[in-house]
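Reviewer 2 asked us to include a model.

Predict the structure of this chain.
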Amino acid sequence: MKSEELQRLTASEPLTLEQEYAMQRSWREDVDKCTFIVLDAEKWQAQPGTTEESCMAGDVNLFLTDLGDPSLGEIEVMIAEPDCRRKGFGTEAVLMMMSYGVTKLGLTKFEAKIGQGNEPSIQMFHKLHFEQVAVSSVFQEVTLRLTMTEPERQWLVEQTSHVEEKPYRDG
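Predicted model (structure tokens):
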């Protein structure tokens, strides 16, 4: 990731190409991570024969790293393509990942750690019913949390009722 703006918004460091490939392998192979790639559906549908790679807008990730609490997932989203930001891609991606976490993984709590300066992301998670639970001045980030009560679960089902799961085709 070479964009200084994305590095700032995601609190990321620049990586070499080899490091990027190693990270992508870990996303695919590690059992404690789930990654969905976010595609620009309008671009995908408007140009028959377009490759998935040319329609990529970003990604959404779920980390299952709290061994003491297997019902907790840390969620993050990145819309890398500037033309795709502020269009609801991040919101929809987070909702779909949360739905997957609840229905397939049995998660009941989600946390998002966001850089204090990333106001659009903080606002998006607030709209998704997350509440701020901590601020780290050392890491300059806020932690937001959502507990899936029955009303929250019903709200999530309503928000994702249009989503259809399909098997991924490889190749």
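Residues 19 and 25 are 10 Å apart (CA to CA). The chain has a mean pLDDT of 87. We have added this to the supplementary material.
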